[in-house]
Amino acid sequence: MKPLRLRNSLWFTALVLAVALAASWLGNFAHGRRLEASFRGQGFARAAGCAETITREMAGMEQVAHDLTAALNSGNLGPDQVPAALAKALEGSPSTVLRLGVLFRPGTAGPGRHLFGPYAERQGKGVHAYFYEDTADYSVKDWFRNEPWQAGWGEPNFSHRGGWLTVDFTEPFQFPAADRPSGLVRLQVSLKSVQEIVDHLDLGTTGFACLLSAKGTYMAHPMEDLVLSQKSILDRADTPGEKRLADMVTRRSGGFTESSSSFTGQPTWVFLQRIPSLGWSVGLVYDQGAEHQMHPEDRRALGIE
Predict the structure, then answer these.
(1) Among 190, 213, 239, where does a domain finish?
(2) What is the pLDDT of residues 74-91, one digit of tens each?
(3) Mean pLDDT of 164-170
(4) What is the extent of the structural domain holding 73?
(5) How many CB atoms lie within 10 A of CB 92?
(6) What's the start-to-end Cα distance of the chain, in Å?
(7) Is residue 152 part of a domain?
(8) 213 by DSSP, 3-state: which?
(9) How many domains does the chain divide into?
(10) pTM of the model
(11) What pLDDT is stored for residue 43 in this prediction?
(12) 4 or 61: whose pLDDT is higher?
């Protein structure tokens, strides 16, 4: 009888251990799933916060154009007054606004003026005034020729003169008696302040952020060559994860996907947040398992000891 009781005892002990191990595994699995879900929520929150900061930064620059457009629309600012108004507006605008101009539809700026495009640009500590038509015919440029005109940001350009990445904002204006838009207010800004917002995000030891234009062009990324060469994420969509990201940009949507790191080649989690008012997208990239390498504030928010 004793051997039988011993065998039963051993089987019972083994069963208890198996149940305990299964419960432990299930508990760890459930904790892991909760942690991953919380991590995703935190990732989306960080991406949304960055998008809001960028929106506020760019709104201050847009307001410079809005003020000029309002004055032109009301008739309080006529063609002859525009050059002085541009210089004053540029002097009072954020330092990231590099150039500011008003480009009139041909023949609408008064007798004897076919083209009239007064501009003001920063030059050292002062402001330099010039006329666009003295250097080129703006009426044949795609951004002017293609109508209907709409307010918005264009694609980034690399300024060889200043050595910085810039982007243009255009907004149509219409004189009170006109039956169609009379021209465009156009400003050029440096992306330096926006790049600093993205670069200074603390995403732990392996995480990083990037900023994409409406067409997927890199506007900010730790791999500076991607920005300087004006590469698009559409050009790099080689893996399934990158293809999903490119598809999100093309469809103008945000979301979450798995991809691989540009630096380590390791699997990553990517959070893409659309910035509707700009047409841009901000992306946050973490190596998978990065919940243990995150910023202390994010770790506390996830309940990680």
Answers:
(1) 190
(2) 999 999 999 999 999 999
(3) 92
(4) 61-190
(5) 10
(6) 51
(7) yes
(8) coil
(9) 2
(10) 0.78
(11) 79
(12) 61
CA angle 29, 32, 38 (to 5 degrees): 145
87 occurs within a structural domain: yes
Residue 217 is classified by DSSP as B
- Asked if residue 120 lies in contact with residue 127, where contact means CB atoms within 8 angstroms, the answer is yes
Instruction: Classify residue 271 as exposed, middle or buried by CB count within 10 Å of its CB (0-12, 13-18, 19+).
Output: buried
Span 139-158, average pLDDT: 94
Note whether 175 and 128 are same-domain residues.
Answer: yes
- Nearby residues of 248 by Cβ (< 8 Å), 6 or more positions away: 254, 255, 257, 272, 281
* Residue 300 reports pLDDT greater than 50: no
Same domain for 129 and 181, yes or no, is: yes
Tell me how far CA of residue 57 lies from CA of 63, 242, 277, 292, in angstroms: 11, 28, 12, 31
The answer to whether residue 149 is domain-embedded is yes
Give the pLDDT score at 61. Answer: 93
In sequence order, what DSSP letters do the residues of 232-276 get, joined into one string?
BGGGG--SHHHHHHHHHHHTT--EEEEEE-TTT--EEEEEEEEET
What is the arithmetic mean of pLDDT over 218-241? Answer: 84
Q: How far is CA 256 from CA 35, 37, 165, 204, in A?
A: 16, 12, 28, 19
Residue 125 sits in the same domain as residue 181: yes
Pair 77, 123 in one domain: yes
CATH number at residue 295: 3.30.450.20
Instruction: Give me the DSSP letters along 91-118.
Output: HTS-TTEEEEEEEEPTT-S-TT-S---E
Residue that is last in its domain, among 190, 213, 241: 190
Residues 240, 145, single domain; the answer is no
pLDDT in tens, 173-196: 999 999 999 999 999 999 999 999
226 vs 302, residue with greater confidence: 226
Residue 122's pLDDT band (cuts 50, 70, 90)? very high
